[in-house]
């Protein structure tokens, strides 16, 4: 048995057991009064179609003024999001696709048609590379639904081995074949694309557009189940089953011959490990496997690309509904060499000898993201100490070929630029990708200062040409590195600039014009403060921020959140013995007598733990009525080093 270890997990080869033959008959709900499927995935003839573009396509005049046409404005240019058709559904609750898409409210930049420069991952296979892998996947998708072929393929591997590029190429190929039902590219730190709240509805909307015979079925389901789209009411698995799996399963009885002739439809899911709702994803995988086991003739395939996270691995690795593809074993120096040849030709790099290219190929070691970052570091302008590309090549070849060494080397070149870590932290930990203008507001600097930092990081950060386009990381592995205390060292990202910036901008929300990042702050200020208080125990940094933030808390948070916020502050200060922080809270008017999360008070904590310095601070703060009994009073009174005892009236122990 050959084992391949990746991401800390050992994957062994496993024999594939043929699925049991099952018989299947159409249920009565399969016979819906719709136009029979003609085998084409779009289903509408040109005379009846205005535009069904899910991403960047052109907008026809017929659709331009349609009441349900919407534009999703992403900085750097408006991506048109249009959903319309003049074809009416016979007997269905929704008149046309435009009416159906509105309640689904899909994420506009989640599919393979997204603008990858502003909605990562920005990955695509170099021409002439990954041929064996692409051929294997296409053959699997094309396999007959009459045979016991797995409905799911899991392409797995470590960060940077090219999973997203494979997913992008396969999605584009089958879209060209009119057999792509849907695609979804998860990406951490991208808002709705790293959670499940709008996942099923986004896939369903694409299925309705790309598999037209399924659209009336989806519409009927929405009409019959009003709470289906509410994540708090209906599970992700139920949403997927009702809106995706069952509609496509039902239409096979309308077009079985066409399905056999053209092959099943495909759904591409990339970066499943980057979705933060791990329990929902695990349950969805289990339900999909169960569904396909009971409905083996469903004309649908799922291509899942991800790293080897336990909640995914445990549910996919041993299932007979899943075929496995270890991408690490499919990556060769030949692919890297071919990609380098393309870059060398495009850049006209006559100085790079064949021997240099061979050494670089070997050094890269099969990692496409490592190769891409090295290329940008070598051949594109940035902070390089004035070194010529030939000299930079020597530095690259001397570098250890791993992400940590690569990222550390690039970050070290920029670390002395003013506001470097604040800008990097904001980009890394922001819940949504933010444009330069918003980053500048949150950090409290000018846009030119932000650009100076970004220009030095061009090889690992996608730097836009304007102040309104979101700044994104080239790869999720950089966020992982910057968020890990054990790996990042001095480059560890902090929630401090986001927590502080949000509080200050919210306090100034009444100013005209209001801050551009105001909406972001309204949504995420509390979350950033909670993480800052819970995770970052640097008392010096904390104390520096405390004085100015406390003055804003009443205007930033609601009454309930103010109390919670102050409680968190007191508990953190007490835990770190940061008595200067208590003085700042006292001066800011914070009620130091409020109950803490465990029901105790600050006075009880310091007396029971015999922390006299904290006890004195609370006394000097005019702590409130001290003639009431409190736990620990007897011990503190008997302590031989106790001072200022004369400030106390007689007390009894509780």
TrEMBL record:
**Could you tell me which Pfam families the record lists for this protein?**
NPHP3_N
Transmembrane region positions? none
> Which keywords does this Swiss-Prot/TrEMBL entry list?
Repeat
Report residue spans for region: Disordered: 1-31
Q: Please identify the protein, giving its name as recorded.
A: Nephrocystin 3-like N-terminal domain-containing protein
Q: Which residues form a coiled coil?
A: none
Compositionally biased residues, Basic and acidic residues: 14-23
Domain Nephrocystin 3-like N-terminal span(s) in chain numbering: 136-307
- Cross-referenced InterPro entries: NPHP3-like_N, P-loop_NTPase
């Amino acid at each position: 048995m050959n084992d391949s270890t990746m991401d800390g997990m050992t994957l062994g080869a496993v024999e594939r057991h043929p699925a049991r033959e099952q018989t299947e008959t159409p249920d009565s709900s399969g016979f819906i009064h719709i136009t029979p499927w003609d085998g084409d995935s779009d289903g509408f003839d040109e005379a009846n179609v205005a535009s069904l573009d899910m991403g960047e396509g052109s907008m026809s005049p017929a659709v331009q003024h349609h009441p349900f046409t919407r534009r999703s404005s992403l900085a750097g240019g408006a991506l048109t999001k249009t959903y319309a058709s003049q074809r009416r559904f016979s007997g269905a609750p929704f008149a046309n696709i435009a009416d159906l898409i509105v309640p689904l409210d899909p994420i506009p930049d989640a599919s393979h048609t997204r603008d990858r420069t502003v909605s990562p991952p920005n990955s695509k296979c170099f021409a002439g590379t990954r041929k064996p892998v692409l051929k294997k996947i296409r053959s699997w998708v094309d396999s007959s639904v009459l045979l016991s072929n797995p409905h799911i393929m899991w392409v797995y591997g470590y960060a940077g081995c090219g999973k997203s590029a494979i997913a992008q190429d396969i999605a584009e190929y089958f879209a060209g074949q009119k057999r792509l039902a849907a695609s979804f590219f998860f990406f951490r730190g991208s808002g709705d694309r790293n959670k499940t709240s709008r996942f099923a509805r986004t896939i369903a909307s694409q299925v309705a557009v790309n598999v037209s015979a399924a659209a009336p079925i989806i519409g009927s389901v929405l009409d019959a189940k009003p709470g289906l789209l509410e994540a708090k009411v209906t599970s992700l698995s139920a949403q997927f089953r009702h809106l995706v799996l069952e509609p496509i399963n039902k239409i096979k009885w309308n077009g079985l011959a066409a399905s056999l002739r053209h092959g099943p439809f495909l759904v591409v899911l990339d970066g499943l490990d980057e979705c933060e709702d791990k329990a929902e994803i695990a349950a969805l995988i289990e339900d999909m496997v169960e569904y396909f086991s009971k409905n083996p003739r469903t004309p649908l395939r799922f291509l899942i690309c991800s790293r080897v996270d336990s909640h995914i691995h445990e549910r996919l690795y041993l299932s007979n509904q899943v075929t496995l593809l270890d991408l690490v074993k499919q990556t060769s120096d030949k692919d890297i060499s071919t990609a380098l040849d393309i870059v060398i030709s495009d850049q006209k790099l006559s100085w790079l000898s064949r021997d240099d290219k061979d050494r670089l190929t070997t050094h890269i070691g099969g990692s496409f993201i490592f190769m891409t970052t090295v290329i940008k570091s070598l051949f594109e302008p940035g902070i390089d100490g004035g070194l010529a590309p030939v000299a930079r090549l020597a530095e690259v070849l001397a570098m250890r070929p791993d992400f940590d060494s690569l990222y550390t080397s690039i970050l070290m070149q920029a670390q002395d630029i003013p506001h470097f870590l604040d800008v990097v932290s904001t980009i890394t930990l922001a819940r949504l990708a933010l444009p330069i203008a918003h980053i500048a507001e949150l950090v409290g600097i000018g846009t030119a200062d932000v650009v100076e930092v970004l220009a030095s990081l061009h090889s690992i950060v996608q730097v836009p040409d304007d102040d309104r386009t979101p700044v994104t990381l080239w790869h999720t592995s950089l966020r992982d590195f910057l968020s890990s205390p054990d790996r990042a060292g001095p480059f560890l990202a902090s929630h401090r600039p986001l927590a502080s910036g949000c509080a200050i901008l919210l306090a100034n929300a009444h100013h005209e014009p209001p801050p551009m990042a105001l909406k972001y702050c309204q949504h995420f200020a509390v979350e950033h403060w909670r993480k800052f208080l819970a995770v970052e125990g640097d008392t010096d940094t904390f104390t520096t921020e405390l004085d100015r933030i406390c003055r804003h808390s009443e205007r930033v948070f609601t009454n309930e959140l103010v109390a919670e916020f102050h409680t968190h502050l007191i508990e953190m200060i007490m835990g770190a013995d940061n008595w200067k922080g208590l003085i700042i809270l006292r001066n800011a008017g914070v009620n130091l007598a409020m109950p803490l999360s465990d029901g105790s008070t600050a006075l009880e904590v310091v007396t029971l733990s015999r922390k006299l310095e904290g006890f004195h601070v609370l006394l000097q703060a005019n702590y409130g009525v001290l003639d009431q009994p409190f736990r620990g009073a007897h011990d503190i009174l008997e302590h031989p080093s106790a001072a200022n005892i004369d400030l106390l009236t007689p007390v009894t122990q509780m």
